[in-house]
Amino acid sequence: MSTIVIAGKEYDELTIFKEKEEYIRLEAVDLCFALKKLVNDKSALVRAAVAQKNVGHEALVNDDSWRVRATVAKYTDSNRVLDVLVGDSHDFVRYVVVKRGYGLFLLVNDPDEEIASIAKYQMQNNEGA
Questions:
Q1: Sequence ranges of the domains in the chain
Q2: I need a labelling partner for 72 at 20 to 30 A (CA). Which of 59, 63, 80, 124 fits?
Q3: 46, 26 in Cβ contact below 8 A?
Q4: The whole model's pTM is what?
Q5: What are the per-10-residue average pLDDT scores of the chain (129 residues)?
Q6: What's the rounded Cα separation, in Å, for the pair 79 and 18?
Q7: Do residues 85 and 107 touch, judged by C-beta distance below 8 A?
Q8: What is the three-class DSSP state of 10?
Q9: What is the largest CA-CA distance in the chain?
């Protein structure tokens, strides 16, 4: 099993997952250590950091935290994940999706006027190109 040293202490995947200090777990993510384990971290900040590393998007697409889902929307390359996020309950998640130019045909009818407006504008620009 691989280990890592952070702040003078040695960790393996299990001990980093059980570490109480969030900044230690964030440092592990920054060093790309135990990412598959930290997808399930109790901290939304750690889970969002994992999503930035393009790991665990299939699991994090259904995360309770809209911040984590928005991070997934920003970094994912998976159309299947974006298909789920187009219909997200939180406006900011859908905003990230529309800014990426994805799901425009659905988002033109979004209840949030700004999202619908962005989708319409991007569709008009795509037609003109």
A1: 39-128
A2: 124
A3: yes
A4: 0.93
A5: 94 97 98 98 99 98 99 98 98 98 97 97 82
A6: 33
A7: no
A8: strand
A9: 58
